[in-house]
Amino acid sequence: MSDLLAAASLLMAIAAILFSLWYSEIATALKIEPKQYSEDDASARRIVTAVLHSKAIPVAIMALAVALIFLPDAITLVMESYIGYVQHGFAAFEKYDAVRTAYCFVNVLSWVLTVYMCTLVVQLFYLRRRMR
After folding, report:
1. Lowest mean per-residue pLDDT among 18-22, 73-77, 80-84, 117-121
2. CA of 79: how far to CAs of 3, 34, 86, 91, 103, in Å?
3. What is the model's pTM?
4. Cα–Cα–Cα angle for 31, 32, 35, nearest 5°?
């Protein structure tokens, strides 16, 4: 279980680092307001497209991949905990394992990052679409 936690944490850290490095550019691109005429938006549209394809989509894909890779084990751990609680009540918490809990927490964080990045990707996509 420690190896799984280490792998999940490492991959999540890489996704978080990429997110933190590129977030300012993504946020800057989202602040661009479409002009009244599409011809005036040509350079802004290129910027939004570049940020979408080179930064937002890759981070979203990486976060989703990390979340999906470790989801089956996280579901298994949550189910084992739930079954233990149903069968033994609070006595099941005597077998508490911080490593398993941390593993599930890392998986939850990867899903949070995935949802947030997908939201940013959709916002960038619609911004680019309004610039046509």
Report:
1. 80-84
2. 20, 48, 10, 16, 14
3. 0.83
4. 145
Helices 98-130, 2-30: axis angle to 10 degrees equals: 20
Largest CA distance in the chain: 68
Distance CA 80, CA 91 (A): 14
Average pLDDT score over the chain: 87
Q: Looking up tokens 């990052």, which residue turns up?
A: 113
Q: Tell me, what's the pLDDT at 44?
A: 84
Q: Are 10 and 103 in contact (CB under 8 A)?
A: no
Torsion sign across C-alpha atoms 118, 122, 125, 131: negative
Q: Which tokens go with 56? A: 């937002």
Give the HSE-up count for residue 10: Cα atoms under 13 Å, Cβ half-sphere: 6
Contacts of 131 (CB under 8 A, 6+ apart): 34, 35, 38, 41, 44, 45, 48
